[in-house]
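Budget justification aside, the reviewers requested a transparent look at the raw inputs and outputs of the sequence design task funded under Objective 1. We therefore reproduce one unedited record. The lines immediately below are the C-alpha coordinates for a 81-residue chain.
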Protein backbone atom coordinates (compact mmCIF):
# COMPACT_ATOMS: atom_id res chain seq x y z
CA UNK A 1 0.00 0.00 0.00
CA UNK A 2 2.82 2.38 0.89
CA UNK A 3 4.63 1.80 -2.41
CA UNK A 4 1.41 2.38 -4.37
CA UNK A 5 0.89 5.68 -2.53
CA UNK A 6 4.48 6.74 -3.25
CA UNK A 7 4.10 5.93 -6.97
CA UNK A 8 0.79 7.78 -7.29
CA UNK A 9 2.08 10.78 -5.32
CA UNK A 10 5.25 11.06 -7.42
CA UNK A 11 3.24 10.82 -10.66
CA UNK A 12 0.88 13.55 -9.40
CA UNK A 13 3.79 15.85 -8.51
CA UNK A 14 5.43 15.23 -11.90
CA UNK A 15 2.15 16.01 -13.67
CA UNK A 16 1.72 19.25 -11.74
CA UNK A 17 5.27 20.34 -12.57
CA UNK A 18 4.75 19.65 -16.26
CA UNK A 19 1.40 21.46 -16.31
CA UNK A 20 2.74 24.64 -14.69
CA UNK A 21 3.79 27.22 -17.28
CA UNK A 22 7.40 28.29 -17.35
CA UNK A 23 7.72 31.86 -16.13
CA UNK A 24 10.77 33.79 -17.24
CA UNK A 25 11.48 37.30 -16.09
CA UNK A 26 12.87 40.07 -18.26
CA UNK A 27 15.27 42.36 -16.47
CA UNK A 28 16.44 45.85 -17.33
CA UNK A 29 18.60 48.43 -15.57
CA UNK A 30 17.57 52.04 -16.21
CA UNK A 31 19.00 55.40 -15.21
CA UNK A 32 16.22 57.95 -14.81
CA UNK A 33 17.19 61.62 -14.96
CA UNK A 34 13.91 63.05 -13.61
CA UNK A 35 11.08 61.90 -11.39
CA UNK A 36 8.81 59.26 -12.97
CA UNK A 37 5.45 57.86 -11.95
CA UNK A 38 5.26 54.02 -11.95
CA UNK A 39 1.82 52.78 -10.98
CA UNK A 40 1.01 54.98 -8.00
CA UNK A 41 4.62 55.42 -6.82
CA UNK A 42 6.77 58.39 -7.79
CA UNK A 43 10.41 57.44 -8.34
CA UNK A 44 13.02 60.16 -7.93
CA UNK A 45 15.94 60.38 -10.36
CA UNK A 46 18.37 57.47 -10.00
CA UNK A 47 19.20 53.95 -11.17
CA UNK A 48 16.52 51.27 -10.97
CA UNK A 49 16.15 47.62 -11.94
CA UNK A 50 12.87 46.72 -13.68
CA UNK A 51 11.82 43.06 -13.66
CA UNK A 52 8.81 42.09 -15.80
CA UNK A 53 7.24 38.63 -15.65
CA UNK A 54 5.33 36.85 -18.42
CA UNK A 55 2.12 37.42 -16.48
CA UNK A 56 2.37 41.21 -16.61
CA UNK A 57 3.80 41.98 -13.18
CA UNK A 58 6.47 44.68 -13.20
CA UNK A 59 8.55 45.11 -10.07
CA UNK A 60 10.93 48.04 -9.70
CA UNK A 61 13.92 47.55 -7.40
CA UNK A 62 16.55 49.93 -6.13
CA UNK A 63 20.01 49.72 -7.73
CA UNK A 64 21.24 47.01 -5.35
CA UNK A 65 18.03 44.94 -5.87
CA UNK A 66 17.42 44.73 -2.13
CA UNK A 67 14.16 46.70 -1.95
CA UNK A 68 11.04 46.83 -4.13
CA UNK A 69 10.23 50.51 -4.62
CA UNK A 70 7.24 50.13 -6.97
CA UNK A 71 4.99 47.52 -8.56
CA UNK A 72 2.60 47.70 -11.49
CA UNK A 73 0.40 45.43 -13.59
CA UNK A 74 0.74 45.68 -17.35
CA UNK A 75 -0.40 43.97 -20.50
CA UNK A 76 2.47 42.33 -22.31
CA UNK A 77 2.48 42.35 -26.12
CA UNK A 78 5.13 41.34 -28.61
CA UNK A 79 6.76 43.99 -30.75
CA UNK A 80 6.23 43.71 -34.49
CA UNK A 81 9.64 44.06 -36.08
Amino acid sequence: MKTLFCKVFSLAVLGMLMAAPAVADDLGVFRIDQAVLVGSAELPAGVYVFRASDRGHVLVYDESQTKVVAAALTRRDSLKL
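Residues 37 and 43 are 6 Å apart (CA to CA). The beta strands are 26-32, 36-38, 41-43, 46-52, 57-62, 68-73. Computational costs for records of this kind are itemized in the attached budget.
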